[in-house]
Amino acid sequence: MTALVTLERVGFSYPGSARPALRDVSVAIEAGTVTGVTGLVGAGASTLLLVAGGFAPRLTGGALTGARHLATERVGIVFATPWTQLTGLASTVLGEVAFGPASLGRPREAVLAAVERAIGDLGVAHLAERDPTTLSGGELQRVVVASILAMVPDLLVLDDPAAELDPAGADALYALLPSVAARGAAVLVATPDTERLARVADRVLALEDGRLVRSGPPGAVLDDTDVARIARAAGCPAPLPLDVAAAVERVVR
Amino acid sequence: MPPILRPVTLRELVVIRLGVAVNLVIGQVAAALLLPVFLDTIGTVLVAALVGPRAAIVAGLTSQVLNAVLSGNFTWLPFGLVQIVIALYAALAARLGAFRRLSTAIPAGLGLGLVAASASAPISYFLFGGVTAGGVTAVTTVIRALGAPLPVAVAAASYSTDLLDKSLVFALVAVVLRSLPHQMAVRFPMLAR
Amino acid sequence: MIGYVPGRSPLHRAHPYTPLAVAAGLLFLAFAFRSPAAVWAVVVAAAVFAAAGGVLGAVLRPAAVLALPTWALLTVLHGLLGGPPHLALGPLALSAPGVERALVFGGRITAILLAFLTALVTVAPPRLVEAMTARGVPFGRIYLLVSTLTVVPRMRARVRQIIDAQQCRGLRIGGSPLARVRALGPLVVPLVLSALAEVDEQALALDVRGGSAAGRRTALAPPADHAADRLVRWTVLVGVVAVYAWKFAGAGR
């Protein structure tokens, strides 16, 4: 497996900020995997996403130290709030999703095929002719993710993507991530939603105050899902079950 | 490539769009407060201070076109020249540090009121016989009815409304710039000068 | 106030640039002439233009609403308060040159309104975007003209929210003129700051979707530009240039 992004002892500070947002982070993100990033607010999770995706310091300003190797330019990023991510140029969902591939100058048939696939994957095909400004937050976020997937990125970066979605929508979104990875992309997702992350991530990076403090499979890194806390309180031995399914399995055993 | 000619970055484009949107929407605030001002150049002035003169001109002209599209009143289109004047004046004022204090911003705004009215009065007089916006023209009519010749009436109406409007715009932009959080302010190199 | 109204008229089916070119041509012609007869010929031409789009009824009402205050003021400003000679019209003494001027200026405004409202009503914004994209208009220009309008409703909603929120905090909307001017700050500053805070994310989202892509964008459904369209636009251009040349030649004599 090839490492798509490699960070070696990377530090990053935003412009005008004395405190570094990232300190001495070394990590390699492989293609075909789902990597989760957790940490308290201000711990540097969002910054790690921007640095790994090549967006910082190019579009944010700031100072980067250490070495970063990004093997591709085809990076997609999804943020938590849907409305700020709309181009505002499309009167239909179809047009909105098509904007990305069309900007790359791909031939018309290829664009339409990519769009059809993306809206199918995200379950928004029934909204194709709708005006994006009339959609609900959850529907809109799915359209935004479809817009990014239509560009077939090699690296998909998501910053708390399900923050505004209802539980069913959030489940569907996270369930999509392994299939995106299976197509060969690398997926990097930062979220406080440790339970859903535990279900889909191959590896989790835990950040604290800008440093990478833990890295490994979800079971080893995450121990603060609701289910895990209950299990710990009940005196369950490590490794703690992280979600309901794992807990049920434990109890049954 | 000299700085004035380099292409606009995406970030600057988003800021210009913000300026245009604020121009189009700010009338709602003035109306809620029942103030007889437009304030519809506040976005242009803000862009002038944050990005620069070229961006401000684009913001001003775009606002002119979109205002016409939204209100249906396309007779405002020829006043695009005034938008250019406003943009350039505001950029110069920003460069000279007029927005650092209210005590310099307000006089600078009065100055813009004079300049802008001087630019728009002739357009209003020669192209439209002194009649365009309802509020300004009502003032024109009153002054004319009092016996002043038409060019004087048009000028007087133009100047009085513009002086108030532009000084308020400059004062508001000064307050906004002062309220910018440090981390936001550093992203605008124009502010450092 | 008024927007695109779907239809099957020649104007609706024309290339989007064509109605816009005709409207611009009528605007230039309206300013070229000085006599009431000539200006009102342009008004009639604008009305014919609207009728060609099948929208004369639709644009007359907004044109009237916008023009009526101007007409009233013109009548007072020029008709009643103009110079001699005066015509007696019942109890009123109207200034003859004043009436003539009122007809000219009023006619100009009426012609411009009819022409551009017709263009507004017959040109569908998505088709215009496609036409501009197909012609290679720079992305920035299209973005500013089209995307801004989709941002406006959200910003208007935010203005209402801010007004409500500040009133809850004790801001008085009424009162003396000075108090109302002071209330501007607490309303305008939060609006601008909250909009500025979104700039980074919006710029990133746009960049990721290919906003800064240098090459030609694929137009998915470019409107057809028939020979008739090009003929009409060229005729408008030649006509306007000819009229102005004649006007300046006449003035030079």
Give an overview in words.
Chain A is α/β, with parallel strands linked by helices and 253 residues long. Chain A is built from nine helices and nine strands. In chain A, the strands form two sheets. Chain A has a six-stranded mixed beta sheet, sandwiched between helices. In chain A, strand 8 and strand 9 form a beta hairpin. Chain A starts with a strand and ends with a helix. Chain B contains nine helices and no strands. Chain B is globular. Chain B starts with 9 loop residues before the first helix and ends with a helix. Chain C folds into two domains: 146 residues, no CATH class; 72 residues, no CATH class. In chain C, a hairpin with a 2-residue loop joins strand 1 and strand 2. Chains in contact: A-B, A-C, B-C.
Q: Keywords for this structure?
A:
heterotrimer; A: 253 residues; alpha/beta; Rossmann fold; six-stranded mixed sheet; three-stranded antiparallel sheet; 9 helices; 9 strands; globular; C: 253 residues; mainly alpha; two-stranded antiparallel ribbon; 74% helix; 3% strand; flat
